[in-house]
Design goal:
By secondary structure, this protein is an alpha/beta fold. The chain is built from 17 helices and 27 strands. Helices cover 33% and strands 23% of the residues. The strands form 5 sheets. Strands 15, 16, 17, 18, 19, 20, 21 and 22 form an 8-stranded antiparallel beta sheet that branches.
């Protein structure tokens, strides 16, 4: 029996680098230097996760049980996550910003046996009746008030005396490791089932493709990405920020952390990179230790990449891997190649090149359909340069959603070689084998017999210096007929005259390209609604409803 458990990497690092810092967490209101952080070494992380794993089993958790995990980025989050993996208990992770109703629905769907959370999470659980009478085990990270259960410190003391201490669950690759709920930015949140083999493959692929070495230092501004660090042998520096509002981050907190710790790797959403990049440009900041910036959630605009290139060394790159919660990574192209070769094509409406697929991943582009496809067949593959629905199969591809026959039927296809995931995106493969992204399938706008896609439509308009971003939507006009509308968000600080002139300029851009002539209306909008997780995915359904009212 082959044991596959991502938490084994923590124990391995504790043996090879026991005193090396594993995690730094900022404390206090100001960040001055390393004294403004508390930290755990790899030995301390191993000890904490061992005690937590043993304590949970001592409480009565059994291998395979599910537990909600609602803890803010912290040393304790790392200890709990790896402790759960070590015990073979399945953490259920839900974005805190998706809203009370959706959180309740996620908990109802996943039916956890336990609830581990900070006091605010427990208070919300009581106020909104989440799993009332159904939860068997409660653990509080922080001050435990009147809701019972164990505090984390009491749980660790219980684990210290347990016969389970130091024992790693003998999990196999197919065993469920975690259930990660999507943000619900393009539909209801779905519980993505991660197996231990999925995590193991992700660590291997990311390490090899991005050439990450043990001993590097990472600043992950998205909590889930931080959990890869111990398995990659990196030291984690948690940022001082609200993880649910990356666009509103204080840039100084990010840049000081990079400078103070000599950070080599950073993860940041395009919205965060935009905020910090503009600040860094204005302040003429330099961060030469930073080798790579990994970004996900949406394409990174060219101006944002250029600003970061100015701050980094000549060897520094932005790596925006294409993927999704259900399958990450899929493909990647470095910022140097994007700016040097493919972005000029993007600006003419050819889509965004996301690069060559990872070597062990099979990618297929098939005809666009909103219907279930039970079995994948090679005959479905479209020709080169033909836009269709992107589908993937490989070790990082998750094979099911938890407790959702509907989403499994719509999102998965079976084959003798393994499960295929339908990404919900449209795009094409070019003659060099590179994948090009053209937007979400559900965001396409059908005008008569013609179908127009978001990314190729918006990119030419986004080249205007007064435009921050645009969004294609398809509302109905007063006659009930579908029309193509472009919503426009201007750069801040423009006068009304400048905005009016910009709209006239955009009409000229529309008339320049045949594929843009179907756009009948351009509507200025004060600020697009975006997703909670990355602050980058536009809520187009909200914009469509808004636009429909505007054109009546």
């Amino acid at each position: 029996m082959t044991i596959v458990n991502i938490a084994a990497a923590v124990d391995s690092m504790a043996q090879s680098r026991p005193n090396e810092p594993a995690i730094y967490e900022p404390v206090g209101s100001k960040l001055e230097d390393k004294s403004s952080y508390r930290s755990w070494s790899y030995r301390e992380l191993e000890s904490a996760s061992n005690e937590i794993a043993a304590g949970l089993l001592e409480l009565g958790f059994k291998r395979g049980d599910r537990t909600a995990l609602m803890v803010t980025p912290s040393l304790e989050l790392f200890g709990l996550t790896f402790g759960l993996f070590k015990a073979g208990i399945v953490p259920v992770m839900i974005d805190p910003g998706i809203g009370i109703k959706k959180m309740g629905a996620c908990l109802e769907n996943s039916d956890p046996k336990g609830f581990i959370g900070v006091p605010k999470a427990h208070i919300a659980r009581l106020l909104f009746g989440w799993r009332r009478g159904e939860l068997q085990h409660l653990v509080t990270v922080g001050t435990r008030l009147g809701w019972g259960g164990y505090s984390l410190s009491a749980l660790r003391k219980l684990g210290q005396k347990s016969a389970h201490l130091g024992k790693l669950a003998q999990t196999q690759g197919d065993d469920i490791a975690a259930i990660l709920f999507t943000s619900g930015s393009t539909g209801p949140p779905k519980g993505v089932v991660y197996r231990h083999r999925n995590f193991a493959a992700q660590v291997e692929w990311i390490r090899d493709r991005f050439d990450i070495k043990p001993g590097e230092i990472d600043l992950p501004t998205f909590p889930l990405f931080a959990l890869f660090d111990p398995a990659l042998g990196m030291t984690t520096v948690l940022p001082k920020m609200d993880a649910t509002k990356p666009a509103e981050v204080n840039p100084e907190n990010i840049l000081r952390a990079i400078e103070g710790f000599g950070v080599t790797t950073m993860f940041g959403s395009p919205a965060l990179l935009n905020t910090v990049g503009r600040y860094g440009e204005n302040e003429s900041r330099k961060i030469p230790t930073l080798k790579r910036v990994i970004s996900a959630g949406a394409p990174v605009p060219a101006p944002t990449m250029s600003r970061w290139h100015e701050m980094m060394s000549d060897e520094g790159v932005i790596l925006p891997p294409y993927g999704a919660t259900e399958s990450l990574p899929v493909a990647c192209l470095s910022s140097r190649d994007i700016l040097g070769e493919t972005w000029a094509k993007t600006e003419t409406g050819l889509g965004v090149c996301v690069g060559l697929p990872f070597l062990k991943l099979d990618v297929a582009v098939i005809p666009i359909s909103d219907q279930p496809i039970e079995t994948f067949e090679d005959s479905l593959r479209l020709d080169t340069e033909e836009i269709g629905e992107i589908c993937v199969r490989g070790a990082v591809v998750t094979d099911e959603y938890w407790n959702s026959d509907t989403h499994n039927t719509l999102g998965k296809m079976q084959s003798p070689e393994g499960v295929w995931h339908r990404m919900g995106d449209v795009g094409y493969v070019d003659a060099s084998g590179r994948l090009w992204f053209c937007g979400r399938k559900s965001h396409r706008v059908q005008i008569g017999s013609k179908c127009i896609f978001t990314i190729p439509t918006e990119a030419p308009f986004n080249t205007h210096p007064n435009v921050f971003r645009t969004a294609l939507v398809g509302p109905n006009n007063p006659q009930g007929k579908r029309v193509a509308v472009l919503c426009v968000e201007f750069e801040p600080g423009l006068s009304r005259d400048e905005q009016r002139q910009t709209l006239e300029d955009l009409k000229q851009i529309r008339d320049k390209y045949d594929h843009l002539k179907l756009i009948s209306v351009l509507l200025p909008h004060p600020g697009f609604p975006v997703d909670i997780r990355h602050n980058a995915k536009i809520n187009r359904e909200f914009l469509r409803e808004w636009a429909e009212k505007e054109i009546q």
